[in-house]
Amino acid sequence: MDYARRLRERARRGDPVRVAVVGMGKFATMFASRIPHTPGLELAAVVDLDPARAARNLRAAGWGEADLARIRFARDPERVLDGTAVDVVVEATGDPLAAVRHALAAFARGLPVVMVSVEADALCGPALAAEAARAGVGYALAWGDQPALVWDLVEWARSCGLRVVAAGKGTKYLPVYHASTPETVWEHYGIGPERARAGGMNPKMFNSFLDGTKSAIEMAAVANATGLAVPRDGLLFPPAGTHRLPSVLRPAAEGGVLERAGMVEVVSSLERDGTPVADDLRWGVYVVFTAEDDYARRCFEEYGLVTDTTGRYAALWRPFHLIGLELAPSVAALALDGRPTGTPLTWRGDVVACAKRDLAAGEQLDGEGGATVWGRLVPASRSHEEGLLPIGLAHGVRLARPVAAGAPVRVEDLEALPESEALRLRRRLVPDY
Length: 433
Hints:
Layout: H1 3-12, E1 17-22, H2 26-34, E2 41-47, H3 51-60, H4 65-68, E3 72-74, H5 77-83, E4 88-91, H6 96-108, E5 113-115, H7 118-135, E6 139-141, H8 146-159, E7 163-171, H9 185-189, H10 193-198, H11 203-210, H12 213-226, H13 245-248, E8 263-268, E9 285-290, H14 294-302, E10 306-307, E11 313-318, H15 328-337, E12 349-355, E13 364-366, E14 373-379, H16 380-386, E15 395-398, H17 421-426
Parallel strand pairs: 1-2, 1-4, 2-3, 4-5, 5-6, 7-8
Antiparallel strand pairs: 7-9, 9-11, 10-11, 12-14, 13-15
Helix pairs in contact: 6-7, 7-12, 8-12
């Protein structure tokens, strides 16, 4: 795909790919740190609720005052998109409702979107992709984040004629983490609250990583982009190091943990007693695959692939992901070829809000990473049939009736569900059974 060469040609012509970033947080700042070192990319505009903070982040990433002076900073994305020459929009706010609004504003102006805010993709990604197609532009998962990297491994396997048995990522997981709150999260990370505050670490964001919500969101994005199935009752988070992936991530009928072949799953870097897993994949992504013929299976052995004891199932993995440092391929693919690095094609998985404790009528939910609910991945068909509340709509809404600890919250349990662009898009979604 030679994007580096083609970007250099754009630079020589004086026609760089111009990027507008919405939300200059950690991910976007990491991306911005690479732009001065990537000929053919230009940061044209930055939209942030706090433009001064955004500029500070860029300075910390190595940007000088002369470079900053060439960027248009603003709080209003629509005004920026109307008044700035832009080729690609990178949405990185992390707020699902805002991200949906921003993506729709970009599509309305004929601009493609790289959706870093995977929360929005999990909430209504297939409908966003349909809106992008209607506008004749691309909509992509963000390379460098784990969903796009998993998608890439799945595409690699399928294009090689291999059958995908499982795909996903690693994380640090114990069952007790589902009850974690922003007040208790630093205990599990072994970090003092003072150190976390000094480092500018957001307790809700880190709690979402810990309590299983972020893993569910990312695997929903993978399932919807690849068509892989999701577990009926949520991710299992089996402990598994890289050399056990083919043995653990195979169907239960053959000694593994999967309901069936062709599913997403997340592996834990901790055994259930809290001891570390050998060869853990905490920061990485994987695919487990099989071949239908004995010849290919012999090749697995001859070329040193890690397989299960039968030699039928094999695994390939990537041990790390570098989030924003790796985002440029998504931007280049959309700008140069109109090709997304993964996009939702079908509604297979949904992330629903589950009570962290007994919740009383009148309580207000605090959404992803909060103290009241965590996000569980379930089939979209189940979510649709049971009227379950997506985690992306579970912030700032009040319960009309109690919900027991561990139970999913239903839309009918709420006093009201405010209208939003995201809710209107969700109403268009049809589960893929």
